[in-house]
Design brief:
It is a single chain. The protein is an all-alpha fold. It has one domain: MazG-like (Helix Hairpins, Orthogonal Bundle), CATH 1.10.287. Helix content is 78%, strand content 0%. It is built from 4 helices and no strands. Helix 1 crosses helix 3 and helix 2 packs antiparallel against helix 3. The longest helix is centred in the middle third of the chain and has 28 residues. The radius of gyration is 16 Å and the shape is globular.
Length: 102
Amino acid sequence: MIMTIDEYAAWAATIAKVDEHPSNERLSYLGLGLAGEAGEVADHIKKLLRDDWLDKAGLVDELGDVIYYWACLCAATGQQPSELLKASAAKIKRRLSEAASR
C-alpha cells in the first residue's frame, strides 16, 4: 500500500501517541528524537569522509527515522506535511531568485 506523506504523518501520530494538544514533554521527546536521528545521518556522512565509504543502507534507514519524527512533529503542530513541503519549496525558490538577482 502506497501512502501519501499526509497519510504517513497521521499513521505515525497514532504510533507516537500524538494528539491535538500534545504536552511539552511529548513535543520535547519528538524534537529530541528528530535531532538524534539527524545526528545519526550526520554520523554516516562523517564516516564517509573518514573511511571514503558510505553505508547507504544505514543512511537510508536513518533518513526514514528522521521522516518519522518530522511527520510526528507535523501532526503534533496541526500541520499537513504536504503543505509544509510546498511552503519549503516556495521559500527555496524565493531564495534562489533573490540570489540570482544580486
